[in-house]
Amino acid sequence: MANYGPDSNGSQFFITTVDENRLPKKLDGRHVVFGKVVKGMDVVRKIEAEGQLTGVPKAKVVIANSGQLPAPAAAGHRDL
Protein backbone atom coordinates (compact mmCIF):
# COMPACT_ATOMS: atom_id res chain seq x y z
CA MET A 1 0.00 0.00 0.00
CA ALA A 2 1.12 3.53 -0.69
CA ASN A 3 -0.37 6.73 0.69
CA TYR A 4 0.34 10.23 -0.56
CA GLY A 5 -2.13 12.08 1.68
CA PRO A 6 -5.85 12.06 2.53
CA ASP A 7 -7.95 9.74 0.35
CA SER A 8 -4.94 8.57 -1.66
CA ASN A 9 -4.38 4.94 -0.61
CA GLY A 10 -3.38 2.79 -3.55
CA SER A 11 -2.60 -0.82 -4.33
CA GLN A 12 0.68 -0.24 -6.13
CA PHE A 13 3.44 -2.56 -4.95
CA PHE A 14 7.20 -2.79 -5.25
CA ILE A 15 9.71 -5.62 -4.98
CA THR A 16 12.97 -4.21 -3.68
CA THR A 17 16.20 -5.95 -4.57
CA VAL A 18 18.58 -4.07 -2.27
CA ASP A 19 20.22 -5.78 0.68
CA GLU A 20 17.90 -5.88 3.71
CA ASN A 21 20.52 -4.03 5.79
CA ARG A 22 20.35 -1.03 3.43
CA LEU A 23 16.60 -0.54 3.91
CA PRO A 24 15.41 2.20 6.28
CA LYS A 25 15.14 1.04 9.90
CA LYS A 26 11.76 2.76 10.22
CA LEU A 27 9.13 3.26 7.53
CA ASP A 28 7.79 6.75 6.89
CA GLY A 29 4.22 5.91 7.98
CA ARG A 30 2.93 5.99 4.41
CA HIS A 31 4.18 2.63 3.08
CA VAL A 32 3.62 -0.92 4.31
CA VAL A 33 5.86 -3.99 4.02
CA PHE A 34 3.58 -6.98 3.45
CA GLY A 35 5.51 -9.87 1.99
CA LYS A 36 8.71 -11.48 0.84
CA VAL A 37 9.71 -13.41 -2.29
CA VAL A 38 10.23 -17.02 -1.17
CA LYS A 39 10.28 -18.68 -4.60
CA GLY A 40 11.08 -17.41 -8.08
CA MET A 41 13.81 -14.91 -7.26
CA ASP A 42 15.36 -15.80 -10.63
CA VAL A 43 12.31 -14.20 -12.26
CA VAL A 44 12.72 -11.08 -10.11
CA ARG A 45 16.36 -10.81 -11.22
CA LYS A 46 15.32 -11.10 -14.90
CA ILE A 47 12.81 -8.27 -14.42
CA GLU A 48 15.45 -6.25 -12.57
CA ALA A 49 17.84 -6.68 -15.52
CA GLU A 50 15.34 -4.82 -17.75
CA GLY A 51 15.49 -1.72 -15.53
CA GLN A 52 17.22 1.58 -16.19
CA LEU A 53 18.07 4.57 -14.00
CA THR A 54 15.20 6.52 -15.60
CA GLY A 55 12.74 3.97 -14.21
CA VAL A 56 11.51 3.04 -17.68
CA PRO A 57 12.26 -0.64 -18.47
CA LYS A 58 14.23 -1.53 -21.61
CA ALA A 59 11.48 -3.99 -22.57
CA LYS A 60 7.82 -4.36 -21.64
CA VAL A 61 7.42 -6.51 -18.50
CA VAL A 62 4.05 -8.20 -17.95
CA ILE A 63 2.95 -10.37 -15.02
CA ALA A 64 0.45 -12.64 -16.77
CA ASN A 65 -0.19 -15.02 -13.88
CA SER A 66 0.52 -15.04 -10.16
CA GLY A 67 -0.54 -16.98 -7.12
CA GLN A 68 0.13 -17.88 -3.54
CA LEU A 69 2.36 -20.67 -2.28
CA PRO A 70 0.77 -23.24 0.04
CA ALA A 71 1.65 -22.75 3.72
CA PRO A 72 4.32 -25.53 3.91
CA ALA A 73 6.34 -23.92 1.08
CA ALA A 74 6.46 -20.62 2.95
CA ALA A 75 7.23 -22.17 6.36
CA GLY A 76 10.50 -21.19 7.94
CA HIS A 77 10.65 -17.75 6.32
CA ARG A 78 10.56 -14.87 8.75
CA ASP A 79 8.25 -11.95 8.12
CA LEU A 80 9.55 -8.40 8.36
Give the mean pLDDT.
77
**Form type:** globular
Stretches with pLDDT under 50, minimum 5 residues: none
- Overall tally of domains: 1
Radius of gyration: 15 Å
The main sheet comes to: none
**Total number of helical segments?**
2
**Helix and strand composition category:** mainly alpha
Number of β-strand runs: 0
Helix content: 10-25%
Measured distance between first and last alpha carbons: 15 Å
Estimate what percentage of residues fall within beta strands.
under 5%
SSE series: HH
Q: Could you explain the architecture of this structure?
A:
- With 80 residues, the chain is mainly α.
- The protein has one domain.
- Helices cover 16% and strands 0% of the residues.
- The protein has 2 helices and no strands.
- Belongs to the cyclophilin-type PPIase family.
